[in-house]
Design a protein that fits this description.
The protein has 1455 residues and is mainly alpha-helical. The chain has a 3-stranded antiparallel β-sheet. It has a 3-stranded antiparallel β-sheet with strand order 13-12-16. Strand 14 and strand 15 form a beta hairpin. The chain is flat.
């Protein structure tokens, strides 16, 4: 028997034996070990003229003899013994002479002496292993990357602080002893610095001859290791290392990659090298751990054949596994090169002097010039090495170069010089970053002094950003990033290129305390490169509203938001850097403004200028509608400018150096344009105007407000609107806002206080939502002042406000609060500094958890329209606060809290509250609320207006308290007393509020209106007390106390009529609802009236009869009456088009899922039938296997579904290219998710119209008459089908019963589209039920359609029986729709099958049923159903279809 590899097992054993016989017997090598003297060998080397030549000659002789052993197929224990022998031989024959040569004495004593005289570095340098715990102090660490090992942590002061414990991914080392890594407590007890002179060179402590020998040995050994690890020839060795006797032995070396799975590698190895599964698993594990493994050892042909099999088996779906046939001597030298590097790492641990010598040797330039040092060669060839080699030399770099600050600096410079090339190699590599040399960036860039040095000397910031941009080359015509058309390779690179953002974060994580001119220059160059990156993101992934048809395929959006989230902390850090230097801030503001102007110049706007006019104010703008034009949620340039604008205010640079700022170049309408569009988009999505754009847009809106992104997205958009509003006329600002919200037509008319009318209910609802969202936006623009630079607050106040509003929803655990707060670059939220001042901790119970509860004194700071609340959070918080106030016996008003004062640069924001346009909007909403009927307003709209009025009154009160009345320019109370601008009789805002105070339909808002009126009275009183310039217009000379008494009297008077008003309101609402319902259901009422008239006329024309009444109620049997023909109107969930279900119309389908079921099985041990020979016409009584159909009830056009499913298939084909995870459905098996509810489906059921049932009001024939008619029909059929060749003489034609046609062929009543869907569902039941490939010609197709209908009905009936529910009384609508569609399909599936097939099945069913009746003993009593045992006869009876068919044929019935 020939094996897969091409050799029989016996030939393979002979080849292995010959390969082993070529190598030297172990006994010979053992004798040489016993006779070998490492001291004598070292003496010979020392006296040699060319030390390198002697060492190379020794290695060429012994390395292949010791390490040239391939896979022997032995057990793991024996393999470990072989490795131990190799280690021992390597130590005695190869490393011991090197130690003697280095120390010039016995190695053990020499190393001990070195260690005694060594003064170690205070750095710990412990290299972490994978999974090892690490500790970072949250109070003292310079950044989150500064960590301690467990030993140092337990011996440090940080164990008493707040700390973070994580597990290491491997590759880093302990930062104990690094003064720049810690704000305090840099050293543990073990690594406290001694009193030695830190400037003393540790090399000077070593003997001069040892220093010379060290340089020679380290140079030779390090060069040897570098040459062998970077060697790319498989069959040759470097000069001087050729063995004296070359053997014809090779290794088939398998290398690791991150593409193929364990299962693929194991399967391939079993085929390629003819090994057992256990051996293949061992090989695969070693390859994954070490990076490579020899899987075959022998001559070249033997190994090359295995290579061919491996490459062929793994190249079908992706690139093949990397396999090389390497000469055994090359493999042996590479193995010893790794041992040599490990030995160097161990030797330098004994002496800092030896460490410095090794560093100098490694960084010394070679004869080729720049980038020619040994360390450079290792770095630049990193991606060519296997995992084990990388790990060993990385560890050597950390133990040597990174432990000495002097050489760490030199290495960092070389690393920065090679940065672009290293990253390019990493992009082409498929190994994880943890085993790449690029991962050392965290050890270099997080040191603040080193990061500044690299930024100045090597322009590191610019290099990182440009390298990042260069690898994202897929752009649209405007130069913006485009992720939607990524290939698999581009998506793979995008996932790897994100590591560069992490490197940039390391560079910027510590902001400078002092700036040099060079640092300013290089930072500004880096900022230029960063702005180019942001310009590529500005406006990416634009969306356009889908109208008419649902979007066919969800667009790619995750990549853009991934990039945004990665850059969030970078943008914040750049702003922090700018805030530390005024010159840098001013220049950054200029550059960012210029970049924004460049982005605006590319916008296709401004072609159609328009003029807007409201309340006597006019503004020029351009025509743009978010609902029709392109809009993007990605605006990083705008948001960076908003952050810098806030810094100008916070640092007071704008007030101290106004001449240096380009404030004259600012165009406020352009500043607010893009953020306003984004916020309008969110509002329209909330209003339901973008439903046809799918879930991708909803997800984008979610992340836009999410805590991970909102700091540099949503929050900055609000700030930019505040900046623009503070620099322009408030009326102009609000007019532009109205225009972008597409509400200008509602509030611009002269009679805007008359409720706007709109015939379309959806448009009215959308406009109401948009008005609510617009008012909410105005509240945020004027009220969100807890940003340092906008309001006069600190970061402490901002965090405290966030916590107050989170705890206003409900008590929360510490982890919940942390998740709700944004993190800074150091992964800190500031929670611990604030929480104890605003909340009290409630200890957990036995099984609960501890919760923080808001202290009662902080409830007054609750703001109902807090900008970080979602709709659900706002509703919960409002309910909780109202409940709390009722429990405390207070009114339920939720007035806005007193806002903090604005900074000077934003001080004009308050004018929004008293501008004419906002007063007109407020007056219109209040006027609408006065007239409760109709749908042109909502209570939420009124609530927002009341909140805005409250904010304005608080602002005026604060200004009166902080300054004299003469200095107060904010006079809101005076403006709300003036009548409205409309020519109608409507009064002022204050008058409208007074009229609403006791309105019965606004009982919930009464307390808030009362609070507002009291505030107005208090402000008037304060103004009267401080100045005589304001005169009360309500009652001349009337005092405030008398005015309050009059109001109380009026209130009591109104209370007497409240019951009557409430009754009138309820009756009016009921009447309005009744009219509305009738208008909405005109067709239903018209149909009911017609049926009523028809029944009335019938009753009048026919005399009453008890018999006729009984017949009219019969629905089953020969006297059943046909029901009225019903129209079925359905709506497609994809295109939203309404259509009637008709037999000749477009096909409508239900999403459905078919599956094989054994739920009702009575014999689960029964083997499933053979699908090729199984006859499903008669189901076995034990119900061992059924076909169940379920549906979610959602309806689609067949064409819409086909397009949707094709889009799903296309998306699934691209899924691997986009690096998505596994889905919950299998497209290859026809599965998909319902477009609306995402219910798993694998087919569709066609919707068929109601069949017209004629009236069968005929007399029931006697048995004799029925038999006579049946015989006549049978004879006619025999006569018609009798062939002349039968030899039967033609006689008289038998009589044909009246109405019976011998040649009757039924016509197909359905359109081609419906017939196609009938075939589709039939094929689905056939394919799933029998688990075979589709075959439309199989006669079993209609049978399986009937079978699934029967089984589904039976399973639902069983379920309802177990739940004690009636059969048709408790069906959910989805089950009702499914059963209705299934039964109609079962009655129509004959149209998709040949008539002879359907007739054959009918005859067989009739034969089986008649035979059962003829052969089963039961009485007439059984037939009538009066005997209970008769109910189960059909289930327990065993059918005999073949014998029954024969008997019926004998009786003369044609089959």
């Amino acid at each position: 028997m020939t094996s897969v590899s091409g050799y029989s097992p016996s030939i393979r054993r002979r080849k292995m034996a010959s390969a082993q016989s070529d190598s030297e017997p172990p006994s010979v090598l053992c004798s040489e070990v016993l006779n070998f003297s490492a001291k004598d060998t070292a003496s010979q080397w020392l006296s040699a003229a060319d030390l390198q030549q002697e060492v190379y000659r020794h290695l060429s002789v012994y390395v292949p003899r010791i390490l040239c052993v391939g896979p022997s197929g032995v057990s793991s224990r024996e393999e470990q013994k072989e490795e131990q022998k190799e280690d021992l031989a390597s130590q005695l024959l190869l490393l011991a002479p090197l130690e003697w040569l280095l120390l010039d004495e016995e190695p053990a004593s020499g190393l001990n002496l070195l260690q005694e005289n060594n003064q170690p570095s205070p750095l710990c340098g412990h290299v972490f292993k994978v999974g090892e715990p690490t500790y970072s102090c949250r109070e003292c660490a310079a950044d989150p990357t500064c960590v301690l090992c467990m030993k140092c942590f337990l011996e440090s002061i940080h164990k008493e602080h707040r700390y973070r414990m994580t597990t290491s991914g491997g590759g880093g080392f302990c930062d104990c002893g690094d003064a720049e890594a810690w704000k305090k407590g840099s050293y543990c007890q073990k690594h406290k610095p001694n009193n030695r002179d830190t400037e003393e060179d540790p090399v000077s402590v070593l003997p001069a001859d040892m220093v010379a020998r060290s340089f020679s040995i380290f140079s030779i050994l390090l060069k040897y290791a570098v040459d062998m690890l970077t060697w790319d020839q498989e069959d040759q060795l470097p000069s001087g290392l050729e063995p004296p006797h070359r053997e014809d032995t090779y290794h088939c070396m398998l290398f690791n990659d991150e593409v193929h799975t364990y299962e693929q590698v194991i399967y391939t190895l079993q085929k390629a090298v003819n090994c057992s599964q256990k051996e293949a698993v061992s090989f695969a594990t070693t390859v994954d751990r070490d990076g490579r493994k020899s899987v075959r050892y022998g001559d070249f042909q033997f190994c090359d054949q295995a290579k061919s099999v491996i490459v062929r088996n793994t190249s079908r779906q992706s690139k093949p596994l990397r396999v090389q046939v390497m000469h055994s001597s090359v493999v042996a030298h590479q193995c010893f090169a790794l041992r040599a590097l490990s030995w160097l790492g161990q030797i330098i641990q004994y002496s800092d002097g030896l460490r410095r010598i090794l560093c100098e040797v490694g960084l010394q330039k070679g004869p080729e010039g720049e980038y020619s040092s040994l360390v450079d060669k290792l770095m630049l060839n990193d991606s060519k090495m296997w995992k084990g080699a990388r790990n060993i030399y990385h560890q050597l770099l950390m133990n040597s170069l990174l432990m000495d600050f002097r050489y760490k600096k030199i290495f960092a410079i070389q690393f920065a010089k090679n940065y672009r090339r290293l990253q390019t190699d990493f992009m082409e590599d498929d190994h994880e970053r943890v085993v790449s040399v690029t991962s050392l960036s965290v050890q270099l860039f997080t040191v603040p002094t080193m990061a500044r040095m690299l930024m100045v000397e090597e322009n590191l910031m610019t290099t990182i950003i440009r390298t990042f941009v260069d690898h994202l080359r897929h752009r649209d015509l405007q130069g913006r990033f485009q992720f939607d058309r990524y290939t698999a390779q581009q998506a793979f690179k995008f996932g790897r290129v994100q590591s560069l953002i992490g490197d940039l974060k390391y560079v910027l994580i510590s902001r400078p305390s002092a700036w040099s001119d060079q640092l300013r220059l290089k930072f500004q160059e880096g900022l230029d490169a960063f702005l180019e990156l942001l310009k590529c993101m500005q406006g990416m992934d634009p969306v356009v509203r889908q109208v008419g048809q649902h979007i066919e395929m969800e667009p790619e959006w995750e990549a853009a938001f991934t990039l945004q989230m990665k850059l969030t902390h970078i943008i914040s850090m750049i702003q922090e850097w700018c805030s530390t230097d005024e010159r840098v801030l001013i220049e950054a503001y200029r550059k960012c403004l210029s970049a924004l102007s460049h982005c605006h110049s590319g916008l296709p706007d401004g072609e159609q200028p328009i003029s807007l006019s409201v309340s006597g104010h006019c503004v020029e703008t351009f025509r743009y509608q978010v609902s029709q034009d392109k809009v993007s949620i990605h605006l990083p340039v705008c948001r960076l400018l908003a952050g810098l604008h806030v810094l100008l205010s916070r640092t007071e640079v704008a007030s101290r150096f106004p001449e240096q700022l380009p404030l004259g170049e600012l165009s406020p309408p352009l500043l607010i344009e893009l953020p306003l569009r984004c916020l309008v988009l969110c509002a329209q999505v909330h209003a339901g105007m973008w439903r046809r754009n799918g879930f991708s847009l909803i997800n984008q809106i979610y992340y836009y407000h999410n805590v991970k992104c909102r700091v540099e997205m949503f929050d900055k958009d609000i700030v930019m609107l505040q900046a623009g509003a503070s620099m322009m006329d408030p009326n102009h600002f609000l007019m532009i806002v109205l225009s972008r919200f597409e509400l200008f037509h509602i509030f611009s008319s002269a009679d805007c206080r008359k409720r706007y009318r709109e015939a379309n209910k959806d448009v009215v609802q959308q406009n109401n939502t948009l008005i609510e969202e617009m008012l909410h936006l105005i509240i945020m623009v004027v009220g969100e002042r807890y940003v340092s630079g906008v309001g006069q607050v600190e970061l402490f106040d901002e965090v405290r406000r966030e916590i107050i509003h989170q705890l206003s929803i409900r008590p929360m655990a510490h982890s919940e609060l942390v998740k709700a707060l944004p993190e800074n670059g150091n992964k800190e939220t500031g929670l611990e500094r604030v929480i104890n001042s605003v909340a009290s901790f409630k200890k957990p119970g036995v099984t609960g958890r501890g919760l923080y509860e808001l202290r009662p004194e902080w409830n007054k700071h609750f703001n109902l329209y807090f900008h970080h609340y979602s709709r659900a959070d706002q509703s919960k918080a409002e309910e909780a606060q109202r409940k709390l106030r009722r429990q405390n016996g207070e009114d339920t008003a939720l007035p806005p809290p007193p806002p903090p004062p604005l900074c000077p640069l934003f001080s004009s924001l308050v004018n929004l509250l008293q501008c004419d346009v906002l007063l007109a909007v407020e007056g219109a909403v209040l006027q609408w609320a006065v007239e409760p009927s109709g749908g042109g307003w909502t209570e939420s709209m009124l609530q927002r207006v009341l909140h805005l009025v409250g904010v304005a009154l608080l602002e005026e009160e604060q200004q009166l308290e902080s300054s004299r009345d003469d200095d107060v320019t904010f006079n809101y109370t005076c403006k709300i007393i003036r009548p409205g601008e409309a020519p109608s009789t409507s009064g002022s805002v204050l008058a409208l509020l007074e009229s609403l105070q006791n309105a019965p339909h606004l009982e919930v808002h009464k307390d808030m209106i009362t609070w507002i009126l009291k505030m107005v009275a208090n402000i008037k009183t304060r103004r009267e007390q401080t100045s005589s310039t304001f005169t009360v217009t309500i009652s001349q000379g009337q005092g405030p106390e008398e005015m309050v008494r009059d109001k109380d009297k009026a209130e009591r008077k109104r209370k007497a009529e409240m019951a009557r008003l409430r009754r009138e309101k309820i009756m009016a609402q009921m009447s309005e609802m009744q009219k509305h319902f009738i208008n909405e259901n005109k067709e239903l009422f018209q149909q009911s009236l017609e049926e009523l008239e028809a029944s009335t006329s019938t009753a009048e024309n026919s005399p009453p009869s008890s018999d006729q009444t009984c017949v009219s109620q019969v629905c089953v049997g020969p006297r059943r009456v046909g029901g009225a023909e019903r129209r079925q109107l359905v709506t497609c969930i994809l295109c939203q088009e309404e259509q009637e279900v008709r037999s000749q119309g477009r096909a409508m389908v239900l999403a459905a899922f078919i599956q094989r079921s054994t739920v009702l099985s009575k014999n689960r041990q029964r083997n499933l039938p053979d699908p090729e020979r199984h006859d499903p016409l008669f189901m076995h009584p034990d119900l061992s296997l059924g076909i169940h159909t379920a549906s979610c009830g959602h309806i689609m056009h067949a064409t819409c579904w086909q397009r949707y499913f094709e889009a799903v298939q296309l998306k699934e084909q691209r899924r691997q290219q986009r690096l998505r995870g596994h889905t919950s459905y299998d497209v290859e098996n026809g599965e998909f998710l319902c477009p609306l509810c995402e219910c798993l489906s694998n087919t569709v059921i066609p919707l068929l119209p109601h069949t017209h049932t004629p009236d069968y009001r005929v007399d029931h024939p006697t048995l004799e008459a029925w038999l006579s008619t049946a015989n006549q029909q049978t004879s006619a059929l025999h006569s018609a089908h009798r062939k002349p060749s039968d030899g039967v003489a033609e006689g008289a034609e038998p009589p044909v019963p009246e109405g019976f046609r011998v040649d009757f062929t039924p016509q197909n009543p359905f359109s081609s589209n419906i017939r196609e869907m009938i075939t589709t569902f039939g094929m689905s039941t056939y394919k799933v039920g029998l688990k075979v490939n589709p075959n439309e010609q199989d006669h079993r197709v209609p049978v399986l359609s009937w079978s699934t209908c029967a089984y589904t009905i039976q399973s639902i009936e069983r379920l309802l029986m177990d739940e004690d529910k009636p059969l048709f009384g408790s069906l959910p609508c989805r089950q009702d729709d499914c059963l209705s569609a299934l039964t109609r399909f079962s009655s129509a599936c004959w149209t998709a099958a040949p008539p002879t097939t359907v007739q054959s099945h009918f005859i067989r069913l009739l034969a089986g049923g008649e035979t059962d009746l003829l052969t089963t003993p039961f009485s007439r009593k059984d037939i009538s159903g009066k005997a209970g045992h008769r109910k189960k006869w059909s289930v327990n009876h065993s059918w005999q279809p073949d014998s029954a068919r024969k008997r019926i044929c004998m009786n003369g019935i044609s089959c």
